[in-house]
Amino acid sequence: MNFYLRQAGFDDLELIREWRNKEHVRKNSFNQHYVTKEEHKDWFSKLNKDNTKQCLIFILEDVPLGISIFSINHKHQRANWSFYLGETGLPKGTGTKLGFASMDYAFDNFKVQKIHTEVLSYNLASLKFHDKLGFVLEGKHKKHFLIESVFYDVYLFSIFREGWEEKKDNLLMIIEKGNNTSLQG
């Protein structure tokens, strides 16, 4: 496979912040303000000291393109997942590859039974994306998140280890079938 995840390091800090501050990332995030260098450095330092957090860089064809972050609850064998692609105009299927790599990595390395996430109701691409990966809708917080004087619903999704095991081979076939697109064009 020409895609994978690796641990984020301090050398990645400015690239992660650059991605995080892009409009397409901020508008779909729960924390939508512009992140300063100092604030970002503090966040990353705290994250690196916390063994329940994992920050991973998504690599496609040796190019870093996004991030996958997990908050792991070891006692209850679950992890909360957030992610984004920092670049736009990427080949079709790039997000699916990030999702595949993230789920495979988490279930193989974190000893969790469940991965869960939250999606803002207006983020239609993310709603479809989670369905494609095999996540199931667990619920909805109605009028839960306030952005510029408007309340938005928040959808709650999860995938269990057995659901991932059932889904991943088929998803990998879809990825491999569409793998004729390249970053070079």
Structure description:
This protein has 185 residues and is α+β, with helices and mostly antiparallel strands. The chain has a single domain, classed as Gcn5-related N-acetyltransferase (GNAT) (Aminopeptidase, 3-Layer(aba) Sandwich), CATH 3.40.630. Helices cover 37% and strands 34% of the residues. It is built from 6 helices and 7 strands; from the N terminus they run E-H-H-H-E-E-E-H-E-H-E-E-H. The protein has helices at residues 13-20, 23-26, 37-49, 94-109, 124-133, 161-177; strands spanning 3-7, 53-60, 63-73, 78-85, 114-120, 136-147, 150-160. Strands 1-2-3-4-5-7-6 form a 7-stranded mixed β-sheet, with helices on both faces. Strand 3 (63-73) and strand 4 (78-85) form a beta hairpin. The two termini are 18 Å apart. InterPro entries: Acyl_CoA_acyltransferase (IPR016181), GNAT_dom (IPR000182), PseH (IPR020036). Residues 3-162 form the N-acetyltransferase domain. It is an enzyme of class 2 (transferase). Its EC number is 2.3.1.202. GO terms for molecular function: acyltransferase activity, transferring groups other than amino-acyl groups.
